Amino acid sequence: MQKINKIDLFFVSFRSFFLQAIWNFKKMQNIGFAFCLINILKKIYDDKKYKEALIRHLEFFNIHPYMVGIVLGIIIKLEKSNSVNNLKDINLISKIKNSLSTTLSAIGDSFIWGIWRPLVFLIIFFLWLISNILLKYKIFTFQSYEIIILILLLFYLFIYNSLHFFLRLYCIYIANKIELEIIKYIQKWKEFNIEIKIKKIGCILTILSLILFFYNQNFSFFDITVSLFILFIFFILKKNRRWKVINMILALFIIFLIIALL
Fold first, then answer.
1. For residue 81, is pLDDT > 80?
2. 37-65 pLDDT, tens per residue?
3. Pair 234, 252: CB distance under 8 Å
4. How far is residue 210's CA from residue 224's CA, in Å, rounded to a whole number?
5. Which of 26, 67, 191, 203 ranks highest by number of CB atoms within 10 Å?
6. Domain range holding 165?
7. How many CB atoms lie within 10 A of CB 71?
């Protein structure tokens, strides 16, 4: 049995980018998950136990792709423990993997898709409005307007993927080190109400963006009234759970864009 080092964990996390490459309807991401672990399992097991471990990880598996690093880190630690001291209940590995995937999928879907992505979009939209005002008063100049769009696009990718890469690349090291203790950190996440705080930041950015949008477009009283009415409808639709936040924000942006062009 060879020792698992940080380089091995890095290559596992790199392979996790292909988690959904062979996605299937029957067992979802099982092949992708097994693909991530192949080199590690070869390193810690002999041929017989390697095949058993590989088959073990070809069972049903589904998780938010950004959160898979946490599960991989813990499972690698458990597989390593099993290679040294045979676990009394080998099914414990599958039980822990399935329970973690369910919990982390719920967190990933609600936070990343429902909160983080819309928040980053709002930040970029807010910066776009500020850049328009700065250009309007010639506080700074660029050779072309496309440069600003390109910078904002790159900035969007940087902010959004900073969390993505942290979860996928760095959390595998943390999870492998502290194992199931990471559950306590997840519980602290809920205790600090981080989601509620981010939602409040999003509301503030929305209000500031509207003010800047009105100011930048020189809206008349009628335009402002119509826009506020649309905003009122937006918040009514927000109470309907069928409407996702990101869809509503995009719809609101398109409506304001149409009004501005008119």
1. yes
2. 999 999 888 888 888 889 999 999 999 99
3. yes
4. 10
5. 67
6. 1-109+129-180
7. 25
